[in-house]
Amino acid sequence: MARQLSIVDVETFEELVEVAGFLSRERRSPRRGVGVLTTSGGASIMTADQLEARGLALPRLSASTGRALAALLPEYAVTRDNPVDVTAGLSEALFEQVLATVVGDERIDTVLTAVTGARGVERARNVARVAHAADKPVVVCWLGGSLTDAGISVLDTEGVACFRNPRTAALALAAARDFAAAQSAWARRNARWAALERARLRPPAARPGPLSYAEAAALARRAGIPLAPEALVATPAAAARAARRLGFPVVLKVVARDLPHKTEAGALALNLRTADEVSRAAGRLLTTARRYRAEGLLVQPMVDGVEVLVGVTRDPTFGPLLVVGAGGVQAELLGDTTARPLPVTRGEILAMLREVRSLGVLRGFRGAPAADVPALVAAIAGVARLAGALGERLQALDVNPIVVGARGRGAWAVDLLLETRPVAVR
Questions:
Q1: How many other C-beta atoms are found inside a 10 Å radius of the C-beta of residue 13?
Q2: 317-366 per-position pLDDT tens digit
Q3: H or E element, residue 382
Q4: Which of 10, 23, 24, 348 is the most exposed place for a label (fewest CB within 10 A)?
């Protein structure tokens, strides 16, 4: 969830202050790549390593930039490509020209100059002059401890971002890139979310709270959630007829709004293979059903496959969260789940499935076939679609489990709970 929202992970208070300060001032982000100008071979290597570790490219400079640098730099300059290492002996006036040349390269959209030593105020003013004239971010990593305080003070006054080590500089640039990508993605998500809310599904219940199974199932089907074939019955004879129609073996479940955990309540009968077994089990379950003001018995064919928990809960900070994890009785036992704020893309749904360790079985395990992951992704997208269509009325949605068959066999929701909440009239 933190990755989806582009929350930046820092390790020290100093990183928190420097990265947050940079993001508050600079919203342009490195997309094509970063150009690096240094006065030290060691600083050059450390800076390049930190940038590349965070996925920030250091593209080769253009031929025209290379020719311009060749005309400016003395023979002792170590490198004339990215990163450009001019050594510590370059004059301040020449350093400013080299920096402006690197900034002008069309292959890069951010420049990081990593400098060392105590060349304080004059260098800081020169860097600030180039930064103010540039159409791209120019940031500084100044290595030298307290010897650099005067120069850093000038950069702060001029509004030029300055970091005291390459790691923090790279962290800040990567954060700017990720934040820009997240903002763009959220704009697209919000457009889809608004479209879902315009096609709002109105729950039929007059009062907020858990919907009946029939009401919840009707909404789920409209949203594209694949429910297993089923029949809601009220007598043993009707249960037996439904089982014959659906095909053996079947499962019987007591359906009641205030019965979320059927196994513990003895409200479930599995793997019934004959009409007689169904009739006897239905008689027992109907006795149990009277304690829960049940709607009736649900008859479904037994569905084999990997059980996956999918749900939506309303978080006071993040709003509706899509939750995916190990399903069935393993849901509470393992607690192996992951979550994302809605809306989500299908690519993000796939990423969520990879994050749940116990769902590695979807890829096939010890001779078991790979599961129908595309069907599962489509089913989860249906859950997200239902949440969007219900909008502010949704309190919680629990589809546990969705049973995923082998590849090509589909995925089926075999249980469903849907709870609404009161919404103020605007």
A1: 8
A2: 888 999 999 887 676 666 789 999 888 889 999 999 999 998 988 998 87
A3: helix 373-390
A4: 24
Please list, in sequence order, all residues whose beta carbon lies within 8 angstroms of the beta carbon of residue 348, skipping any fewer than 6 positions away: 4, 340
Please spell the DSSP secondary structure of 213-225, one letter per residue: HHHHHHHHHHHT-
Whether 113 contacts 100, CB under 8 Å: no
The token duo for 165 is: 């080590």
| pLDDT, position 199 | 57
Instruction: Read off the DSSP letter of residue 371.
Output: B
CA atoms within 13 A on the CB side of 210: 14
- Would 229-301 and 306-420 be classified into the same CATH topology? no
Provide CATH code, domain 306-420. Answer: 3.30.470.20
What pTM does this model have?
A: 0.71
Confidence class for position 316, pLDDT limits 50, 70, 90: confident
- Into which CATH architecture does domain 229-301 fall? 2-Layer Sandwich (3.30)
User: Per DSSP, what are the bridge partners of residue 301?
Assistant: 250
Top-level class of domain 13-181: alpha beta
Which pLDDT value is given to residue 221?
Answer: 93
The residues, any chain, with a CB within 8 Å of residue 72's CB and separated by 6 or more, are 94, 97, 98, 101
Domain ranges (residues) in the chain? 13-181, 229-301, 306-420
Confidence band (pLDDT; 50, 70, 90) for 28? confident
DSSP code for 187: H
At 285, list the tokens.
Answer: 């379950």
Q: pLDDT band at residue 265, thresholds of 50, 70 and 90?
A: confident
Rg (CA), the chain: 31
Angle at 280 between CA 279 and CA 283, to 5 degrees: 85
Residue in 226, 231, 248, 242 with CA at minimum distance from that of residue 381: 226
Interatomic CA distance for residues 50 and 229, integer angstroms: 55
Measured distance between the N- and C-terminal CA atoms of the chain, rounded to whole angstroms? 31
CA distance 424 to 410: 39
